[in-house]
Amino acid sequence: APAQIGVTGLAVMGRNLARNLARHGFTVALHNRTHARTESLVAEHGDEGTFVPSERLEDFVASLERPRAIIVMVKAGGPTDAVVDELVPLLDEGDIVIDCGNAHFADTRRREQALSEHGLHFVGAGVSGGEVGALEGPSIMPGGSAQSYEKLGPIFESIAAQVDGTPCCVHVGPDGAGHFVKMVHNGIEYADMQLIAEAYDLLRSGLGAAPAQIADTFREWNSGDLESFLIEITADVLAHTDAATGEAFVDVVLDQAEQKGTGRWTVQNALELGVPITGIAEATFARSLSGHAEQRAAAAQAFATPAEEGFADDPQAFTDDVRKALYASKVVAYAQGFDHIAAGSDEYGWDVDPGAMATIWRGGCIIRAKFLDRIREAYDDQPDLPTLLVAPYFAAAVQDGVDSWRRVVAAAARAGIPTPAFSSSLAYFDALRRPRLPAALIQGLRDNFGAHTYRRVDRDGTFHTEWSQDLVEHEA
Ligand code: NDP
Question: Would residue 151 show up in a list of annotated catalytic residues for this protein?
């Protein structure tokens, strides 16, 4: 029988996705540029389901039922274009090419446009969950045409993670919508991880707690509102002892965080759309800063540690403050991420349903967390929510944590412990909530030096003051 779906690109991710599909009863066509990978997949896992391997791309395409559905799981960028270009002449109208790699959504829009001119569907699908997720159930964020989802939906929804019987997969929207949402997902992941790292640093440097103790604290936190995959694995990583040295694992790891670029994409796009995703931006820059080893060494030598290091008066109370500050900051990070999705959806005409995104992030993906249920409920109750921060549940959580948040950020500043994500999230919250901002002064300065004009609180219109002529004001 012809295969129902094909996978080309059988490195870690493609291999595991193909196995996941086969385990769910789909007949899976296989192809990889280097045929040895295909052979090893069939040799090692051929008994998990029905695979149809092909060495040549032509044979792979011919082995598929029509309309064909072909997952491309190769290195993002040039390799994806190369594979798509090879595929297009072999395909027929109505066939679907699905890029499950980490593509930039603008590339996906370009590819979708190009393939639609050939009568083909191009679907950019974000896949989160790493290699384990790909095998056992990822969160899948497919974009592309609604028509393509008629074929893909049942397949993807059956291999995706399931939470309370609901699959972690939904049609996100046209063309690049899926990859855009995956990008923002990764941005939120950056913010979430930076916040966790700052919480750890506060307990470690502020209270002098040992990594194993902090692991216990995170494990405890994981039984409350903060319950999430990242909090859970934080406890595991902190509890881990390095086999070679017997030291805490976290102490033998070089403290320079790397990145593959999705955080940077998120921030770049947010700057273009004018969405203040300050938490994600701080998290991305914090990783960059950590890598500037020479500057760090020079500054460490030039400046002493603040005298007031440590604040162990009441460790339990401080730990509780950190937990609340972490939760409030996390709410800000998600509020900003969802704002970003809304702005992208408006800009590119995608009509993305934010509640549905919270739903498909509940399982399979790296930012899976209990509180995503709350986000979905917030958008169910009020689809035009101006910001997640004012949804009743989150407003109450932030209100409950705000004093702790201020104490933590103030203590960190006094002790010289950098908390860019905690601090900027609090600043974002305060800026949003303040009735007036010093932006009025900025408008005055802009009018003074550049005649950029300003609006007034008491009258409609645009005004300019002749700063050199006795301050005459007139309508611009
Ligand atoms: P890699 O990104 O390492 O890519 C390796 C695969 O790409 C191999 O199958 C390789 O074929 C193929 N390839 C590279 N260049 C070409 C080319 N010019 N023509 C044809 N095939 C080519 O594999 P991963 O499995 O790690 O990731 C696949 C995709 O999934 C990437 O886009 C990645 O960003 C994304 N992703 C990865 C995650 C992860 O946790 N690793 C998580 C989510 C998404 P060959 O065997 O012949 O070299």
Answer: no
**Annotated catalytic residue: which of 151, 182, 324, 330?**
182
The protein residue with its alpha carbon nearest to ligand 1, atom 38, reads 130
Q: pLDDT per residue over 192-247, tens digit each?
A: 999 999 999 999 999 999 999 999 999 999 999 999 999 999 999 999 999 999 99
The tokens describing 203, both together, are 């307990």
Average pLDDT for 131-135: 96
Is the minimum distance from the CB of 223 to ligand 1 under 6 angstroms? no
Using DSSP, how many helices (H) and how many strands (E) does the chain show? 20, 11
Cβ–ligand 1 contact at 232 (below 6 Å): no
**Predicted TM-score of the model (pTM):** 0.96
Does residue 131 register a pLDDT over 70? Answer: yes
189 is catalytic: yes
Q: Is any ligand 1 atom within 6 A of the Cβ of residue 74?
A: yes
Cα separation, 321 vs 298, in Å, equals 33
* Dihedral pair phi/psi, residue 281, rounded to 5°: -65, -45
Given the structure tokens 């219109």, which residue do they identify? 461
Characterize the bridge pairing of strands 139-142 and 121-128.
antiparallel
Spatial neighbors of 327 by CB under 8 A, at least 6 apart, are 225, 226, 397, 401
Q: Has the ipTM of the complex gone over 0.85?
A: yes
102 pocket-lining for ligand 1 (C-beta < 6 Å) = yes
Report whether 71 contacts 41 (CB < 8 A).
no
Label residue 67 by pLDDT band (50, 70, 90). Answer: very high
220: amino acid identity, one letter: E
In terms of C-beta density within 10 A (0-12 exposed, 13-18 middle, 19 or more buried), how is residue 307 classed?
exposed
